[in-house]
Structures are given as C-alpha cells and as structure tokens.
Amino acid sequence: MPQITVDYSASLESSFDRRAFALALHPLIVETIDSKIEACKTRIRRVEETVVAAGAPDDAVIHIGIAVLPGRTPELKARLSEAVLDLVAGHLKAVDGMVPIVSAEVRDLEPSYRKR
C-alpha cells in the first residue's frame, strides 16, 4: 500500500517523464496521507490506443489510480487527487495540437487486500 497505477496514451511517450513523475509522486503521497515511502509501488502502463468522445486522432489520456488502505476521509483523498494532477503538469511537456486529459482517483483497497 499504496498501490499506484499510471496509464498513459502511447502518443505521450516522449513528452511524459514517467519515472520522474513516479519518483516525485511517492513523497507526495507519503506527505499527504501519512504513509511510508517503502510502501509505494507504481506500475506504469502504456496504452496503445485511446479513443475519447468522437475519437480525434490525437486523443491523449493519463489516468493515475491510487489505492490506499481504508480510513482516509473523502476530503483527504480529494486533496491527494488534486495534488497528483498538479504534479503531472510538471512532468508533461507540451505537444503541438494535443491537450491530454489527465485524471486521478484515490480509492480504498478492498478488505480482501493482502501483501507478502
């Protein structure tokens, strides 16, 4: 915990500094929800095709999902989501004609969550 997943459109390959983002994200999470840096695990997945609304050819999406142990207030989770969106902006270079849709979600892990 936290379990972090970053999905990003392939068209952002050269403009999204994923590793630097993840390395900056971990301390942000620790600071915001009082976790431990050693607990942060991020999987970054390139999405080959993204279609938004009518399907413009330059559609681009970044979605960050953060799953945490239950007990955080909705307000704290919303504050973390906002901070994550702000952080992405610092790791994403502008690409002519492309306006990526960036979203973040913080949710509770299910009670069945186990770790070894």
From TrEMBL:
Keyword Heme among record annotations: no
SUPFAM superfamilies for this protein: Tautomerase/MIF
A GO term for molecular function: 5-carboxymethyl-2-hydroxymuconate delta-isomerase activity
Domain of life: Bacteria
Keywords carried by this UniProt record: Isomerase
The protein's name in its UniProt record: Isomerase
Species of provenance: Streptomyces lunaelactis
